[in-house]
Amino acid sequence: MFRIHILGCGSALPTLKHWASSQIVEVRDKQFMIDCGEGTQIQLRRAHVHLTSVQAVFISHLHGDHCFGLIGLICTFGMLGRTAPLHVYAPAELKAMLYAQIDLFCQGLEYEVVFHEVDTTKAQAIYEDKSLSVTTIPLDHRTPCSGFLFREKPTLPHIRRDMIDFLNIPVSQINNIKMGAGWTTEEGKHYDHTQLVTPATPPKAYAYCSDTRYMPRLHEQIEGVDLLYHESTYCDDKKDNARKYYHSTARQAATVARDAHVGKLLLGHYSARYNDEQQLLNEAREVFSETYLSDENMVFDV
User: Fold this and answer.
1) How far apart are CA 16 and CA 26, in angstroms?
2) Going by C-beta distance under 8 Å and a sequence separation of 6 or more, which residues neighbour residue 290?
């Protein structure tokens, strides 16, 4: 299971239609949050995501619509009796302020908030476990900003159940076969590893590109990902605004997706000026047909 829960896809100016930026990345029974704008914990409830199951929060940059909900979320975790550490990955400037807020608002917190400084100027691995890695994607915004690339690690091939039954292969040998061993029957007939397994499921990848100007070489960092979320604050008629305020148009987001040969593109971070985002979608699909609008409470499989 590798899927994305959209909690908020609006931009800085609050509207009655969209919530501030936030997503949940659910991968192999682990849950990670990207950005945490105001109201994120309410949206978690609506998405039926268990609040205390979030292992880590990745903050792309220090604009309020991407991080104002973090201290409230931390306090709520405390009221729910969380004991597991919460890891926060964010630009270094947030660290002192976050711990000051915790000291002021969350006295007696019974779990540890572990802060990891993110260098937004270079691509580097910031999280890794046995099944997943997370790498930063340097972006071009008014303040230091980083996207995040979630990539599954390759898995072992699948054992053929029919061959297990046919050859009476003991359970103790299944992992050895997955690792490359063959099997010889009591009669001396040998079966090669390739006869006993089917290929592993190809690993998937998801790229989250938060607030950024159009970057002509961004596609090189996210080549071939299965799903890309790229901010699309404006339509093409406002591309001067996009450049001025360090944002992208829907057409520019689609250009990145096309050049990176991604599977699908999700648009988001819509300007409050648009009551209907269909114009954004239409412009993007002129460049990249596999483009979709993100919306609150939508879930996308990677």
Assistant:
1) 27
2) 257, 262, 263, 264, 265
